[in-house]
C-alpha cells in the first residue's frame, strides 16, 4: 500500500492495481507469464535479435544495464506496440551512490548519520537515472558487515542494524519519492537477502554461517526497516547461508519474508545466482536450480535462464503449481503498475532537471562534507589558517585524481564533472597560497616512488604538508576484498619519510573501507577520513581543511588496530571473561618462561589488546561538545510503555558545529545474551559556539524487543543500562527497568 496517500485513497489505489493485475494475468499464456519472470542483460549497441523476438512474443519482463535513451525507448516501444499484451519493461541499473552526480560511497554516506541528506542524495540519483528511462535501481545494499576486508563494505551502511535500517529506509524514500508512479521516481531494491556481509574471511561470495538468533537480531532488521519504508523489491544474495544458498532459501524467502513479514513486493535473484545453486552443490542441474529458486519464491531471474528453460516442464510435472507462478507474475506486474509504466512507459527528460546541475552538485557537496570523519587533530593542526600559511605541499596519488575519488559502483559517473582537492584548493586560495604539488607514487599500490627527492623537497619548502592517500576505487567493491587492510604500496613509508621534515602533516584518506592506521597514526598531526567522497570531493575537503565548515562525520564502522582483530564491532557480547584495562597484558611484557595460568585471564589479543583504534560512532570536530543532565522521565516503564530521555549537549568551543547525539542501551539479563551496547536512536544537532541544547528522545519499550531462544520476538521485563554521548564509548549513563510479570511476544 502507498504509505504516503491517506488510508482510504491508498486502499483504493491498491485495489485498482490488484484488479488491473488480475485482468491482465487472466489474458496471459503460460509462455508470457514465464517470460515476465526473465531479466536480460542489455547492450548499449541496440536491441539484439533474440531480445527483439522475446519482446515481440511478450516474453521478457526486464532488462538491466542499458542507459542509452534510444535503446531503452526502442525496447519499450517493441514491448508496448509489437507484443500481444503491451506490457512495459522494468529497466534496471546499479545506481548505487549517484547516477551522473556522484555522492560519497554508501559507507561514507553512513558516516554523515544524516537521513535527510541521504534521502536527498537518493532523490537526485533517481531524478538523473530516470532521464534515460531507468526505472529500477539495485540499491540500497543493507547487508550488515563487520569485516573491512570485504570489498563490498564500501557499498554498505556499516556494522549496526539500527543505523543501517534508518539510513537504508532514507535511501528507499529518496529513490521512490512520495509517489512511485511520479516522473523521476524509481523502484528501490533491498539487497542482498540475506547474510551476504558475513562472508567468511571477508572473501566476497563466501559462505556465511550465522546462527538463526543472530540472523534475526542483527542481519535481518535493516531489511524489515526497508520493507516498512515501502521498498518495491528485494534481491536475493549470492552466499550460502547455513548450508542453504540464499537464492534457494525457503526459510528466508518464504517463511520470513512472505509469511512472517507479509511482504507483497517483488523478489529478483542476483546475477545468475539461480544457476549458481548447482555450483554451490545444492542442486544437480539447472532444472533443479529453477525448482529450488521458484519454490523458495524468487519472482524474477537475473540474466541466467533456468526459468525460461525449465519452469514449464516443472509445472507439467506438478512440482511447481500454476498458482505459484501466477503469484510470482502478479508481484512483477504489480510493480509495473505501481511505477505507472503502463501510463508513462517512456523516459521524459524534458520534465526532469538537467544532469549534474548546480543543485545536484550542492547536494553532493553537503553529503560529502558531512561524511568526512576527523579522526585525529593534535595541537589543533586543523583547520589550516590561510593567513598563517604561505605555502603547502600537496602530496599523494589521490590529490588530483578526478576518477579515483568517485569510488566503486560508478558506472555512469563522469570524472570530468569532478573537482579534485588540488583544483579546489587553488580555486579557494588563489594567489595567496603556493601549492607545491607532488604525486609521489603513481598509484596507491606503487611500491616505488616517482622521485622521492623531489617529494621531500616539495615538503621541505612548504609550511605544511597535506597528504592525499588511501585506496583507489578498484581496491574495494564487488569481488575486491583485501586480506591486508593497511595503506597499500609504499604509502606508510612515504609518511614515515615525510614525518622527518617535522612539518605539520595533515593526512586525507580516501578509501572504500576502514584501513589499519596504527602504523602511521603517531606520525601525522591530523587525519580526515574521507572514504571516496564523489564528484564534489575537492571542494568539500577544501572547506574542511580551511575551516569553512567543521567536520561532523561519525564512524559507522569500527576501525581495528590490526587486521587480526576482525571481526571487531561495538555491539559485541560480553563473554564470561570480559576484558578490562587491568586484565590485559601485552605479549612483550610477559616474562620469559612465565608459568601457564588462566587466572585473571580475559578475552583479548596478546598483541592488540581488546580496544579498536577508533570506535563506532566516533568523530572529532573543530569545536568540542560535552554532555550533562541526563534525565529519564521515569526509571521504570511498562512492557508497552515509553520513557522520555533528555540530555543537555553543550558546544563548549569557539565555533559552531554539528554533533551526532547517540543513545545506547544494554539489556543486562535476557533470555538470550544481548550486546554490551546497542544503538537505539540518534539525532544530529547544530550548535553555535557556547550554545546549550536539550536533546529529547522518546524510548519505547518496543525498541528493546529482540528474538529469544525460540525465535519469538519478545519484550522482556528487566533492568537496562542507557548511555548518551558522541560515540559508542560514551559514559554518561543511567538505568531503568521494564516492569512486568513475564515477557510478551510482539509482531516483527
Ligand atoms: C551483482 C551484484 O551482487 C548486485 O548487487 C548487482 O545489483 C547485480 N550484480 C547487477 O549488476
UniProtKB/TrEMBL annotation:
It holds the Pfam family Fn3-like. Coiled coil: none annotated. Belongs to the glycosyl hydrolase 3 family. The keyword Metal-binding does not apply. Its EC number is 3.2.1.21. Keywords: Glycosidase, Hydrolase, Signal. One of its GO terms (biological process) is glucan catabolic process. This is beta-glucosidase. It catalyses: Hydrolysis of terminal, non-reducing beta-D-glucosyl residues with release of beta-D-glucose. Gene3D superfamilies: Glycoside hydrolase family 3 C-terminal domain (3.40.50.1700), Glycoside hydrolase, family 3, N-terminal domain (3.20.20.300), Immunoglobulins (2.60.40.10). The keyword Hydrolase applies. GO terms for molecular function: beta-glucosidase activity. Residues 659-728 form the Fibronectin type III-like domain.
Amino acid at each position: 500500500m502507498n504509505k504516503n496517500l491517506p488510508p482510504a485513497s491508498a486502499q483504493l489505489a491498491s485495489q485498482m492495481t490488484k484488479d488491473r493485475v488480475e485482468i491482465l494475468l487472466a489474458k496471459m499464456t503460460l509462455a508470457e507469464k514465464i517470460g515476465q519472470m526473465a531479466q536480460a542483460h542489455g547492450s548499449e549497441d541496440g536491441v539484439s535479435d533474440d531480445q527483439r523476438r522475446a519482446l515481440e512474443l511478450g516474453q521478457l519482463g526486464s532488462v538491466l544495464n542499458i542507459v542509452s535513451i534510444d535503446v531503452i525507448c526502442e525496447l519499450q516501444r517493441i514491448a508496448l506496440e509489437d507484443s500481444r499484451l503491451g506490457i512495459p519493461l522494468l529497466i534496471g541499473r546499479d545506481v548505487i551512490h549517484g547516477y551522473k552526480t556522484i555522492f560519497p560511497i554508501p559507507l561514507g554516506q553512513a558516516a554523515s548519520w544524516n537521513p535527510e541528506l541521504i534521502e536527498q542524495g537518493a532523490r537526485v540519483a533517481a531524478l538523473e537515472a530516470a532521464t534515460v528511462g531507468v526505472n529500477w535501481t539495485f540499491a540500497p545494499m543493507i547487508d550488515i558487515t563487520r569485516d573491512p576486508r570485504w570489498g563490498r563494505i564500501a557499498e554498505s551502511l556499516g556494522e549496526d542494524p539500527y543505523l543501517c535500517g534508518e539510513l537504508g529506509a532514507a535511501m528507499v524514500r529518496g529513490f521512490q519519492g512520495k509517489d512511485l508512479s511520479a516522473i523521476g521516481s524509481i523502484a528501490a531494491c533491498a539487497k542482498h537477502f540475506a547474510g551476504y556481509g558475513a562472508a567468511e574471511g571477508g572473501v566476497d561470495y563466501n559462505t556465511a554461517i550465522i546462527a538463526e538468533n543472530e540472523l534475526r537480531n542483527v542481519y535481518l532488521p535493516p531489511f524489515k526497516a526497508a520493507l516498512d519504508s515501502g521498498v518495491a523489491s528485494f534481491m536475493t544474495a549470492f552466499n550460502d547461508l547455513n548450508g542453504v544458498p540464499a537464492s534457494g532459501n525457503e526459510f528466508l524467502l518464504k517463511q520470513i519474508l512472505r509469511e512472517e513479514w507479509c511482504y507483497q513486493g517483488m523478489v529478483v535473484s542476483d546475477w545468475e545466482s539461480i544457476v549458481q545453486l548447482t555450483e554451490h552443490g545444492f542442486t544437480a542441474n539447472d532444472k533443479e536450480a529453477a525448482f529450488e529458486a521458484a519454490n523458495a519464491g524468487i519472482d524474477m531471474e537475473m540474466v541466467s535462464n533456468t526459468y525460461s528453460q525449465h519452469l514449464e516442464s516443472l509445472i507439467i510435472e506438478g512440482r511447481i503449481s500454476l498458482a505459484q507462478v501466477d503469484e510470482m507474475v502478479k508481484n512483477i506486474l504489480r510493480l509495473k503498475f505501481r511505477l505507472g509504466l503502463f501510463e508513462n512507459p517512456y523516459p521524459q527528460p524534458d520534465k526532469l532537471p538537467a544532469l549534474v546541475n548546480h543543485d545536484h552538485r550542492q547536494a553532493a557537496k553537503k553529503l560529502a562534507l558531512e561524511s568526512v570523519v576527523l579522526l585525529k587533530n593534535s595541537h589543533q593542526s586543523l583547520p589550516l589558517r590561510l593567513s598563517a600559511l604561505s605555502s603547502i605541499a600537496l602530496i599523494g596519488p589521490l590529490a588530483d585524481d578526478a576518477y579515483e575519488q568517485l569510488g566503486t559502483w560508478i558506472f555512469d559517473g563522469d570524472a570530468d564533472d569532478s573537482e579534485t582537492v588540488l583544483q579546489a584548493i587553488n580555486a579557494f586560495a588563489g594567489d595567496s597560497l603556493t601549492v607545491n604539488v607532488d604525486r609521489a607514487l603513481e598509484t596507491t599500490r606503487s611500491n616505488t616512488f616517482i622521485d622521492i627527492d623531489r617529494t621531500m623537497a616539495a615538503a621541505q619548502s612548504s609550511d605544511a604538508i597535506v597528504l592525499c592517500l588511501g585506496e583507489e576505487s578498484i581496491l574495494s567493491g564487488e569481488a575486491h576484498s583485501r586480506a591486508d587492510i593497511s595503506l597499500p604500496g609504499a604509502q606508510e613509508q612515504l609518511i614515515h619519510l615525510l614525518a622527518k621534515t617535522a612539518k605539520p602533516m595533515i593526512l586525507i584518506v580516501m578509501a572504500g573501507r576502514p584501513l589499519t592506521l596504527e602504523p602511521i597514526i603517531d606520525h601525522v598531526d591530523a587525519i580526515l577520513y574521507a572514504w571516496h567522497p564523489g564528484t564534489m570531493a575537492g571542494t568539500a575537503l577544501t572547506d574542511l581543511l580551511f575551516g569553512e565548515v567543521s567536520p561532523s562525520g561519525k564512524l559507522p564502522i569500527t576501525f581495528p588496530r590490526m587486521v587480526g582483530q576482525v571481526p571487531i564491532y561495538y555491539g559485541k557480547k560480553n563473554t564470561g571473561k570480559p576484558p578490562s584495562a587491568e586484565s590485559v597484558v601485552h605479549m612483550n611484557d610477559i616474562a620469559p618462561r612465565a608459568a601457564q595460568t588462566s587466572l585473571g585471564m580475559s578475552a583479548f589479543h596478546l598483541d592488540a589488546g581488546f580496544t579498536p583504534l577508533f570506535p563506532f560512532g566516533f568523530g572529532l570536530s573543530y569545536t568540542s561538545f560535552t554532555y550533562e543532565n541526563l534525565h529519564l522521565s521515569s526509571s521504570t516503564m511498562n512492557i508497552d510503555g515509553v520513557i522520555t530521555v533528555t540530555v543537555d549537549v553543550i558546544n563548549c568551543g569557539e565555533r559552531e558545529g554539528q554533533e551526532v547525539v547517540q543513545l545506547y542501551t544494554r539489556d543486562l539479563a535476557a533470555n538470550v545474551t544481548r550486546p554490551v551496547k546497542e544503538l537505539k536512536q540518534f539525532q544530529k544537532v547544530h550548535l553555535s559556539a557556547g550554545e546549550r541544547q536539550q536533546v529529547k528522545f522518546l524510548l519505547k519499550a518496543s525498541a528493546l524487543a529482540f528474538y529469544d531462544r525460540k525465535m519469538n520476538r519478545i519484550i522482556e521485563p528487566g533492568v537496562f543500562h542507557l548511555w548518551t554521548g558522541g560515540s559508542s564509548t560514551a559514559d554518561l549513563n543511567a538505568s531503568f527497568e521494564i516492569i512486568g510479570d513475564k515477557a510478551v511476544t510482539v509482531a516483527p
